Structure formats: C-alpha cells, structure tokens
Amino acid sequence: MKPYVFNLLPEDDLAEKLGRIRRYMAETGLDTLFIADNGNKYYLTGRIFSGYIIVTASEVFSFVKRPTCFSEDEVILIRKVEEIADHINVRALGRIGFELSQSPYNDIVRYSKALLTSDFGNADAVMMASRAIKTTYEISKIRTSSDALSAVYRKIPSMYQEGMSDIELQVEIERQSRLHGNLGIFRIIGQEMELNMGSVLVGDNADNPSPYDFAMGGSGIDPSLPVGADGTIIRPGSTVMVDTNGNFTGYMTDMTRTFACGEVSDTAYAAHRLSIEICEAIAKAGVPGTKAADLYNLAADMTVSAGLADRFMGHNSQAGFVGHGVGIAINEWPVLAPRSRDVIALGNVIAIEPKFVIDGVGAVGVENTYVVTANGMEKLTRAPEDMLRLDEEI
Amino acid sequence: MKPYVFNLLPEDDLAEKLGRIRRYMAETGLDTLFIADNGNKYYLTGRIFSGYIIVTASEVFSFVKRPTCFSEDEVILIRKVEEIADHINVRALGRIGFELSQSPYNDIVRYSKALLTSDFGNADAVMMASRAIKTTYEISKIRTSSDALSAVYRKIPSMYQEGMSDIELQVEIERQSRLHGNLGIFRIIGQEMELNMGSVLVGDNADNPSPYDFAMGGSGIDPSLPVGADGTIIRPGSTVMVDTNGNFTGYMTDMTRTFACGEVSDTAYAAHRLSIEICEAIAKAGVPGTKAADLYNLAADMTVSAGLADRFMGHNSQAGFVGHGVGIAINEWPVLAPRSRDVIALGNVIAIEPKFVIDGVGAVGVENTYVVTANGMEKLTRAPEDMLRLDEEI
Fold first, then answer.
1. What is the pLDDT of residues B65-115, one digit of tens each?
2. Chain A residue with the nearest C-alpha to that of B102
3. Which end of chain A has a smaller Cβ tally under 10 Å, C or N?
4. Inter-chain contact B48–A211, Cβ cutoff 8 Å?
5. Of residues A215 and B364, which shows the higher confidence score?
C-alpha cells in the first residue's frame, strides 16, 4: 500500500493554530503540550488516529499507534506511550501540559512516567482557548455543515405524517440528515452528557427534566438515555422543537427550529417571536470585545420585559446559559452565561438558543450558529425561523 | 410534580450486584467505591443521572445533582461533590476506590479532596468484574435487544436496492433499527474508540485500516470518523458485512451478518462457513472455568487448519481478539484474546466474531452474542447465519 498523507490540514491553518497555542502555552507557563484527546488530535491533524501529539515551542511530533499506514517521514510509529522516550529527548520537554480535565487519572499517571515528569500543568485551557477562535478553514467546514443541516430542516414539513410520534419524525429527520452526509457522531467534551442524534420535543415532554445541561430536557424513551423524544404522538395544539445533530464535516453546527401542529396559542407565537428577536439582538451586540455575560443578560432582560422569564430555558428545570461555542464538539468556548468570564472574539463560532416552554403547548424558539465578525455575528444556519405549520412546505 | 422513583432495578438484581461488588471490594482491599461513570451508575440504579453513588460494605448513598425530581427518601440532593461531606461522615469511608481508569485526572483530584482522602485505589476492576457476570434481569434485557436486532437484520434484503452505496444501505438499517426501538447511543468504555451506529462494509473497504481496535476497519466517509462505510457502491461479486448498533434496552447485543451481492467466490463462502463453525466450536467449548485464551486459540487453530490464518480478523491490519464481553458497553469483560487471563464464568455475555477478509470480495463471517450457561454458551442473536444473497428474503 502507498503510505497515506498524515496531516490533512492546510499549511496556513495549522500554522495559525500553532501560533495561538504557543502564545497561550507561554502565557500559562507550559513548554510542551501532550495531546491524547481525539478532538484535540483532530484539531491539529484533520484526522482521528490512535496515538499522541507533542507540541513544543519549535516542533510538533506525531506519535502514531494505529493505523500504521503513514509515512515515517511524517509520523513516528510506536506501540505504546513508553516508546516516546526512545525517539525524543523527553528531559528537554520542560514543563508539560497534559489534558487533565479530560484524560483519565491512570492515563495521566502513565504519561507522566513515560515522559519522566512529575511537575505538570493543564493543557485543556490552552486547547479550549485556541479552539474557540476558528480559522478560515474551520469556518468553511462549519458553513458546509450549516448549509447541509438547513437543507434537511427545510424538508421537515414534508417528512411529517398525521399521527406520527416524536420518535418517528426524528427517525425521518435522522435518515434525511444521514443521506445528506451527516456523520452521526455527536462529540461532547466531558464524559457526563450523552446524546444520540439530537432531539425532537413535542408538547409537555419538553419540560421533563433531564440530567444533562441542555437547554431543553425531555424524558427519552429509556432511562438509560433520559433525554429527548419520549414517544409522544404529535397532536394539534402542540409545538415540535427540532434540535438535531449538525456534524457533516467533523465540525458541528447547531440549529433549532420549531414547528406548530395545527393551531397553537398566541403566547407560544409571541415567545417564539421573542426568541428570534433575542437572537437578532445578541447577533448585533456580539462584536469582538463584548462580555459573554453581558450578552446573556441582554437576553434575560428581554425575557423579563416580555413577562416570560419563568419560561426561559425551561420551567421545571431552567438551564443557566443562552449560548455556547460550537466546533469539533458541541460545547466549546465561549459560554454565554450570567457568570461567564469569556469575552467575544473575532472567529468565535457561537450557537445562540433562547428557548421557552409554554404549558400545554411545548417548547418554542430557535437556535442559530453564528460566526463573530468585526461587525457582529453572521448567521450560518439559514433555514426559515418562523414557526411554520408542519403541513406547510418551507 | 410527584417525585419519581429513583432506583429502577428489581430488588434481587441490585442485591446480587452489590453482593458481588462487596466481595471484590474486600478482595482488593477497598472499603468504599465512589462511582461517577454513567455506565456504572446505570448498572447500580437502572437510570442515568448527574451525580455519584457511594457503596460501602453496608450502605449505598445516591447523591444527585440533576434532575432534582427524586424523593429525598431515596437520594441526597447536592449541587457539587464537595457537599457530600455535609451529609455523611467521609472520614469513616476507609480506603476508597475511584474510577481511575475512566474519570479525568482533575475529577479524581477533586473527588479525593472532597472526601478527604489521599490514599485511594481503583474501582474499575471491581466494577468491570461484577459487570462481567450478568444477572437474570440484565440477560433478559440483552435477550430483548438481541431479538429486536435479529428482527431488523431479517429485513435487510428487503432494504437493498440495486446501485445502492454502503452508506445508503446503512441508513436504511439505522432507520429500521430506530423504528424498532434502537436507542442509538453506542457505549464504549474508554475515550479513544468512537462509533456512530455501527458499520456496513462492502468489498475491499473492509480491509482499510482504522485507528480503532475493532475486528474490521473501513475508511469511513470522513477522516474525523475513519471507520466503516466509505460510499462504496454495492456491486455484484462483493460481500456486504453488517455489524450495527444493538442497543434497544440500555444493554447492547452485538451481531454481524454477511450478505452476498451476486455471485461471490468459493473462498468467500468457505471462510464464511468457517466463521460459523468457529462460533459453534467456541460456544460448545465455552463452559464455565474455560480459559478465554484457550477459546481464542481454538479459533486461531481452526483458521490455520483451513489455510485462512492470514485473512483472520483482517489482513492489512489484524485485530488481536475473537470475542469480547457485551453489556451496558460494547467492550466489557471477558476478552477472548491470546494473552487474556480471563476465565469464562456463568452469566458472562460474550460476542464472538471470527471474521475474514477476502481480497477482491470483502469481509465475511458472522458475530453472535452468547450467554454462558452451565452447559456452554446459548446463542441470543438468532437471525440466519448463512451468507444469503441480498435479493433473497430471510
């Protein structure tokens, strides 16, 4: 077999990322990063592989366990982490940052022994901070994912059939999404939150509490995955909120649209309209330098003025944020929350999801993914935002 | 709202698990287990929640962060792990086992501070050993998943249409599976291996190396998830190996079936037949007390006799096992591998997957999930095993 090219990133993309990473390394007193997490390895190579990346101030070493098809000009093939010391002078690595918030305890113990260090720091903040600023190449991938998910969402009314359950509609959306190239995998940083292909919430199920820190809950169909659709039949008078997987390129987009089945209350329409207005207000205000907490407060104030604060981001269980970074994973930086210390920066990609729960009707609101430009946020998720009837074509 | 019942397990099921866990705790010198992992929490409660379980020699404490809908007779509601010390005497917990192979380094540091301990051990081996022996209740869940996946697999020939790609067939299988109640989530212990809903491998793509320790590889359609279907059109002369998600109940089953498109070579049929024979031989030999390594060697010897050893479990990249435990996760104990020290025990649930790659044709073989009884292994995955033509109904 001809060796495969290992690093799939455009040269300037990798250079931009490394420049930022090395600046943050210097700021946090780290001489070296040791990268084992799939998301971070993908960020630095454009591919998932079994192995490790070592980043120093001047060099990048790729140690690969599997697959073994790459040229040894590009990678160093190893069988286990202990072999790294056979190939490079690990004593010269200085203070190493490991992914302490992500890698298992025993892995860190093993890595630090293999690299002969006991005084180490945390690589996660460096990587999260760098990943928060998307490169042109990354933005193009998120744009592609956004366009694909928008195309799928436009077809949703045509997927609906009278008498369907939430699960049945979700399965049709999943199918269309997969046929449009959706990869299926839903990457979430951290081990606690789990999700399959996203969720479709109908009627009062939207307010059933879930263990996860998602904007909306839902019971799910089994206590082993207590989130999302629970088998509710879609009946006139309820809303159908669709918030499903947007990973078509390795980079995710995040979009929610709400549909009405039959006639729903004026309150539901008003809250839905408010959600769109909040998105627009945040997008306009969110220029580089803005405090993420201020954007959350802008949203919260608008819900107070409208008398909908107690319906904002759930009712029985309210989520404490209105937006979050999106990229390789669904929960990147910055976070738009009351106590967030994040500051909006050029190149951030942020999902904004002001959602409301209306008793007896269900969830309403939209979610859009934006890229931060010098003039504010540009919306990437372009499916129609109005609460359309499920029986109308969009 | 009326409080929800927290622990969903039958009483005798939980009692059996706790009995085994406490025996292993005593054997490994642990007085207490501190459980944070979703799979382990599900094992002990029948539900996923945000929080922790503490198991001592005489008590079980459930600390719940979210959702907050449970009765305080059953759970202790907390906001953060540090509050545990307000509710129980953490100094009396003795030597604590944390999930050192699974929980992130920083989480372990935080937990050990919160519980005022610095001398701790590893809970993972205890939990893995207990989870390897399935209770009657767990086996009934795996049986349900097996029957559901068998029903889906029987429909595969009816999903096939001429000119389809591997992805298109996979999407139809996923859709049918989801409509039969598949939960979608694919739990794998450890952070490295990732998979969406399993894989469909057509022709030579089966031998493309993947970074994961799976029996077969496949390129995938994107380097961010380099496994499985790669867009190959299903053409006469190739095989179609289907190995997709069997999680219908929180407990997984694992089943592979291979279909032929048109005429395939006699070698392919012979290797497929050998796979079925290896399954049958292992199932017969696998009585309690058998060494797992002996079962691997039994399989390997049969491939040598048949002259197919270099095609066994891949060719360009061969996997080093022929079977693995299945339960809440796809990679439980025991492992049937040459250097495994596991011993087959009553109540093990094991997937056996002797697979072969035939040049120019593709992957062949079956995978079945078995429960170990006193007389050997009982097969739970009952879809027909012969390599049927995709255009025949099964």
1. 999 889 889 999 999 999 999 999 999 999 999 999 999 999 999 999 999
2. A104
3. N
4. yes
5. B364
CA distance A314 to A304: 14
Tokens of B126: 């205890």
Cβ–Cβ < 8 Å for A287, A298: no
- Cα separation of A156 and A255, whole Å? 13
Q: Which two tokens stand for residue A161?
A: 């059939």
User: What is chain B's percent helix, strand, coil content, to nearest 5?
Assistant: 35, 20, 45
Read out DSSP for B16-55?
Answer: HHHHHHHHHHHHTT-SEEEE--HHHHHHHHSS--EEEEEE
pTM: 0.96
Are B38 and A221 within 8 A, CB to CB? no
List all residues 6 or more positions away from A327 whose beta carbon is below 8 Å from its beta carbon. Answer: A131, A132, A134, A138, A142, A251, A252, A349
Could you tell me which of B196, B153, B213 has the C-alpha nearest to residue A181?
B196
> What distance in Å separates the CA atoms of residue A312 and residue B174, rounded to the nearest whole number?
35
What would the DSSP string read from start to end of B301-365?
Answer: HHHHHTT-GGGBT-SSS--S-SEEE-SSSSSEEEEESTT---B--TT-EEEE--EEEETTTEEEE
The complex scores an ipTM of: 0.96
Location of structure tokens 């499903």: A244
**Chain A residues lying within 8 Å of B226, measured CB to CB:** 47-49
Contact with chain B for residue A67, Cβ under 8 A: yes
Contact check, Cβ <8 Å, A104/B101: yes
User: Residue A392 — pLDDT band, cuts 50, 70, 90?
Assistant: low
Chain B contact for A246, CB < 8 A?
A: no
B66/A181 CB distance under 8 A: no
Listed in sequence order, the residues at least 6 apart from B51 whose beta carbon sits closer than 8 Å to its beta carbon are A211, B41, B62, B63, B64, B65, B66, B75, B78
The edge-to-edge listing of strands for the beta sheet with A96-98 is: A76-77, A60-66, A50-56, A32-35, A96-98, A120-122
> In this predicted model, what pLDDT tens digit does every residue of A246-279 receive, in sequence order?
999 999 999 999 999 999 999 999 999 999 999 9
Whether residue A49 and residue B191 make contact (CB cut-off 8 A), yes or no, is: no
Distance CA A217, CA A225 (A): 11
Q: Is A359 on the interface with B (CB under 8 A)?
A: no
Assess whether pLDDT exceeds 60 at residue B273. Answer: yes
Q: How many CB atoms are closer than 10 A to CB A283? A: 19
Cross-chain Cβ contact A191/B38 below 8 Å: yes
Q: How far apart are the first and last CA of chain B?
A: 48
Picking from B124, B185, B330 by the largest number of A CB atoms within 10 A of its own CB, the best residue to mutate is B185
Question: How far, rounded to the nearest angstrom, does the alpha carbon of residue A48 sit from its chain's CA centroid?
Answer: 17
B118 touches chain A (CB under 8 A): no
Can you spell out the DSSP letters for A330-393? SSEEEEESTT---B--TT-EEEE--EEEETTTEEEE-BEEEEEETTEEEE---S--S-EETTS-
Phi, psi of A71, rounded to the nearest 5 degrees: -70, 140
Are residues B174 and A174, on separate chains, in Cβ contact within 8 Å? yes
Residue A213 sits at the chain B interface (C-beta within 8 Å): yes
Give exposure, B166-198, as e/b (b: 16+ Cβ within 10 Å).
Answer: bbbbbbbbbbbbbeebbbbbbbbbebbbbbbbb
* B202 beta partners: B240
Exposed e or buried b per residue across B137-146, where buried means at least 16 C-beta atoms within 10 angstroms of its C-beta: bbbebbbbbb
Is B108 in contact with A105 (Cβ distance < 8 A)?
Answer: yes
Do residue B103 and residue A98 have CB atoms under 8 angstroms apart? Answer: no
The angle subtended at Cα B112 by Cα B106 and Cα B115, nearest 5°, is 140
Least CB–CB distance from A211: residue in B50, B104, B194 = B50
Which of B8, B50, B226 lies at the smallest CB-CB distance from A223?
Answer: B8
CB A175, CB B175: distance < 8 Å:
yes
Q: In angstroms, what separates the C-alpha of A209 from chain B's closest C-alpha? A: 6
